[in-house]
Design a protein that fits this description.
Strand content: 15-25%
Strand order of the largest sheet: 5-4-8-9-15-14
Distance between the termini: 39 Å
Order of helices and strands: HEEEEEHEEHEEEEEHEEE
Number of strands: 15
Number of helices: 4
Low-confidence stretches: 1-33, 35-40, 45-108
Structural class: mainly beta
Oligomer: single chain
C-alpha cells in the first residue's frame, strides 16, 4: 500500500538571505564542517557501565526513575534551557497517522518488525531528486539504502545546497549489549531516522567549538539542516515526520541507532493498562555555563531524569531502546551495543 506524505510549506525567507554577504560567510563557517569526517568522538563518561534501570512498565505516573548509584537528584531547574524552536508554518496540516507503518512485502528478508516509512516526493521539492529508501534483511544484518532526500518540504536555512547522497548502512537485526559503552561520534551519522535521513549527534562543526546546534537555533522546523556536502541530517527529534498522535503513542519508532537498537518517541505507558502516558526526560543536565562544547557543557546526573546515561531504558522483554528526548543529548548519550557505520 502506497501512502502519501502531507507536504509542509514555509513561506518565510531563509534567514541567511537577509543578513548580507558578511553574514553569509559567517554562516558558512559555522555550518560548513558539520558533516566532515571526524576522528574525534564524544568523551566517554567517567563510569563506563550503563546503569541498570527498571523496565518501562514499572514507571508510575509522576514518578522519577532513579539509578542504583544515585545519591541525589538534581532539581529540574538545572535542566538545559529550552530554545525558541523553529516551527512549521501555520498553513500546514499534521502528517497523516497512517504513513508510519510496518513496511514489508516489497522488501526482502524477515524485516516485518522494522518500521520505516514508504517515502515519496514532496511536491514542493521539485528542484531536488525524489527520496529513495529501501531496506532488506539477511541473517543478522539489516541493510538500509537511502539517498538522504527529505520526504517533507525542504526549506533552505543555510548556504549549503541539498544534494542526493548514496547511503548504505548495515545494522544488527538482533542487537546485543556490548561489554562497555561506546561514545557517540562528534561528527557524521550516528543513527538513521525512519524516513532514511541520517541522525547526527548533538554537536555542530569543530570550527564552531562543537556547540549544540539546537540550542544555537540554527536548525530548520524539522530539527535538521544540510552540511557542506549537501547531506541533510537531523540533530534533534524530527517531529515533522510524525503526526501528533504517532509522536505521543508509546512504542513509536523514530529511528535506529548504529548499534541496532531502536530510538523511540519519549512517551511510555504510565500503568499496566496504558490508561495514561508519561513523557520521559533525559538525565543529562547543564553543568557548565561557559563551555562551548556540548559534551563539556552537559553532564549525566543519575536520577535527575528518567533515562540512563545512554538516554535509554531496558524494555519489559529484556531488550533495550533509546528515547528521542526534548533536551540534550536528544537521541543517544552513548551506545550500549556495538555501533557500525562510524566514519574513521
Amino acid at each position: 500500500m502506497k501512502t502519501t506524505i502531507t507536504p509542509y510549506s514555509k513561506n518565510t525567507q531563509p534567514f541567511y538571505a537577509k543578513i548580507g554577504a558578511l553574514g553569509l560567510i559567517t554562516t558558512s563557517l559555522l555550518l560548513g564542517a558539520c558533516a566532515g569526517p571526524q576522528r574525534i568522538q564524544a568523551p566517554l563518561p567517567a563510569n563506563p557501565p550503563v546503569s541498570q534501570v527498571p523496565a518501562i512498565g514499572n514507571i508510575g505516573a509522576g514518578q522519577t526513575q532513579t539509578s542504583p548509584n544515585s545519591t541525589a537528584a538534581l532539581p529540574r531547574a538545572n535542566q538545559a534551557p529550552a530554545p525558541t524552536p523553529v516551527t512549521a508554518p501555520n498553513n500546514t496540516s499534521p502528517a497523516p497517522a497512517s504513513k508510519l507503518a510496518v513496511v514489508n512485502g516489497s522488501f526482502t528478508g524477515d524485516c516485518t518488525n522494522y518500521r520505516f516509512q514508504k517515502v515519496s516526493a514532496n511536491p514542493k521539492n521539485s528542484a531536488y531528486a525524489a527520496p529513495i529508501l529501501t531496506f532488506s534483511c539477511n541473517g543478522n544484518t539489516v541493510t538500509i539504502k537511502s539517498n538522504g532526500i527529505p520526504n517533507f518540504e525542504y526549506v533552505q536555512t543555510n548556504p549549503n545546497r541539498l544534494q542526493a547522497q548514496n547511503y548504505t548502512w548495515n545494522i544488527a537485526q538482533k542487537p546485543a549489549r556490548a561489554n562497555a559503552i561506546t561514545a557517540v561520534p562528534m561528527g557524521g551519522p550516528s543513527a538513521i531516522a525512519v524516513n532514511g535521513i541520517p541522525i547526527f549527534g548533538p554537536t555542530e562543526a569543530p570550527n564552531d567549538g562543537y556547540q549544540d546546534p539546537y540550542l544555537q537555533g540554527i536548525l530548520d522546523f524539522c530539527s535538521g539542516h544540510p552540511a557542506q556536502r549537501g547531506d541533510y541530517h537531523f540533530h534533534a527529534r524530527p517531529n515533522c515526520i510524525l503526526s501528533d498522535s504517532e509522536l505521543k503513542k508509546p512504542g513509536t519508532v523514530i529511528g535506529y541507532a548504529f548499534d541496532g537498537f531502536p530510538i523511540l518517541s519519549p512517551y511510555v505507558c504510565a500503568d499496566a493498562a496504558c490508561s495514561s502516558t508519561k513523557k520521559l526526560n533525559s538525565s543529562w543536565r547543564v553543568t557548565s555555563a561557559t563551555a562551548k562544547n556540548a559534551w563539556e557543557k552537559h553532564s549525566y546526573v543519575a536520577g535527575a531524569g528518567d533515562l540512563d546515561r545512554c538516554n535509554g531504558l531496558n524494555q519489559p522483554d529484556g531488550s533495550y531502546a533509546y528515547y528521542a528526548t526534548d533536551s540534550f543529548p536528544y537521541f543517544m548519550g552513548c551506545y550500549v551495543g556495538t555501533p557500525a557505520n562510524i566514519r574513521p
